[in-house]
Structure formats: structure tokens, C-alpha cells
Please model this.
Amino acid sequence: MGVLRFAQDDKAFMNTAEQTLDEILTLAAAHFKVPRDKLRPDDDFFKTLGIDSLQTLDLLTKLENHFRVELPDYELQGVSDFRTLASRIQARL
Amino acid sequence: MHEAEAGSRAASECAGSALSWTLSDGVIELALHREPCNELGSASLVELEKFSAALESMQAEAHALIIYSKLKPGFCAGADLRELYHRSQAIGKAEAARGVRDFLERIHRVLNGIDAAPLTTIAAVHGVTFGGGFELALACDLIIADKMARFCFPELRLGLIPGFGGIPRLKRDLGNAVVRDLLLTGRSFNATKAQQIGLVSQVVGEGEVLRAARATAAQLGKFDRATATAAKKFIKPIPQEELRQEIDIFCELFARPAVQAGLRKFVESANAQPYLP
Model:
């Protein structure tokens, strides 16, 4: 399942779980200025990115804006790795 | 300098430790700058009261007020829970209860003054806009949000309800079903969602919120002031009775042991997500 999103050439495509994960890693790397190749899907993003609670909210907002989804923060309770985060987002696409 | 001129200048410009304001070209800008994220405690309240008094003398010369934060994390993270917890631990229950009621009465007076001010008020928000910070924004006529702004009423997580006028003002502006969702789940939501539900009037790109607020304030200055004031009075009634009730309910809840436990958990938390229940 996924939402239809439109690329610049108007070709519709749907995100796969792997694409979603890859986009999250790229976004997180860019936002927190960490080399993309340092981030692994099963990393604890609090530790790898070295982020506090306010920065976590920033990441959440960034992801919601990028994927155009709404992620209630109680659904992210206990989530600390990129792969699980991607699965939560994928479930809302 | 003439004494009256010096007095007028003092009212139209002030730099405090938690906030500062200026008046220029009919626009008052109130900047919040108390680290880490403009938590509202007793020091901020004193300065807000000082601003409130100055607002009365400045409003004859101004058509707009912009409230914004100079700090990167956000607009305002709400009440200073650490101060609230430590103060309530240091004194007896009855004294703590009186102190909380007094604080609420005072902050309500400030926010009611901003809500009813005969000029157009704009909250220019970015980042964290939580609890009391959200309530400060709700007292304004317009909320303009950076696309990275995030709103939340986390009070239920502490066994409390919002106490700075949040519920009556949210009810005034939004449908009750949305109000229930936001209050009862305590979840946070972004600027796009806030615009969808009718809370935010403009969403702008990152770092653009103050520029957008200034452009809006300049536009407001083109129109007849008395008409704008009459329109505001007509479309934005102050929910006085419900604001009174909110203080009573908050104080009743605050007396329960569960609240102290909730505050302690928050204050002592080393969790990276202390805002989550």
C-alpha cells in the first residue's frame, strides 16, 4: 500500500519500504549534517545522530513534511532505529 | 531629553532577560529569548506583566503586535516545569496551591490583555510551540507558522489540563472534535496539520516566519484602525467564564499526588523523548 506521489516528469510512483528507508537516511544525514554513509538502517538514531528530544521533534516534522504523512508521536514511542521508523511511515503512505 | 519623551521611549523599547520589545512604524515586536526554549516561569511572567503595562501605553501608536522567538529550538516550550516542581517541593501543599493559582491569575491577565488588545496581534512561530507557548500563540489574532513548527498540549501527560487559557481559546477557534483529539491524546502536530484544521493562517518556508509576519503587519497598517478594532471585537469574543473555570479545574487537579509524580518523572527523565507519555 502506498500513496501516489508525482515526480517532476509527472510519472506516478509508489514508495517501496526500501525507498522509504533510503529517503529517511538521506534526509536525516542532510538535516543533522552527518555523512550519509555513516548511517545504517538498524542504527539507534538517537545515538548515531546525537540528538536530544527537541531535535527528535525536528526530525519528525521533517519526515512528515517530506512524506506528507501525519505521524502521531505516541506511535513512535520506543522506536529508536531507522528501519522501524521507516516501517511506521510506510504504514501511513 | 524631556522627561515625558524619556518615559515614552522607555515604554516603547525594553530589553529584559527573558523578552524584549520595540515599537517602530506602528508595529510592536515582542521577542522571546530565554534559554533553552522560552519556558514561562516567574521571571518571564514579571517581564510579561511589564510588557502588558507598556502595551497599554504603546497601543495608541501601534496597529500591530508581532510575538516571536529569537531562539533556534522554537517559539516557546510552555510553562517552566522544573521551576514549578522545585518550588512546589520546597513549600507546603497549601502554599504551593496558592502560588499556582496566583501564577495562573497573573498570566491570564497578561494573555487576556493581548487577546483583547485593540490592535492586530500576530504570533510568528517556529519549532516547539508547546503548552503555555501554544496558549500564548492562541491569544493572538493570527498565527503564522514556519513549516518546521510543531504544536502540542502535553499537559494531560502530567495529570493536568492546559492552564493558560488554552482550552477555551482552542474551542473558540476550532471544532470540538479536533480539540478533543489534541487535548486527550496529547499528541504533537506540525504546521501543515495546524493550517488544515484552521489554527494557522499562513505556513511559510524555514526561517521565513518573521519576514512574513512583518509583511502582514505592514498590510494591516493600510486600513482604518478603528474599523479593524471593531471587527476584531465582533469576531473574537473573550471566553471569560470558561477561562475562569479552567483556572479552577487546573488548581483542583494540581492538588493531586499524581501531578507531583508526573512532574518529578518529567524533571528527572534522562529519556531522549521525555515529551512522550
Remarks:
- Chain B has a mean pLDDT of 91.
- DSSP finds twelve helices and eleven strands in chain B.
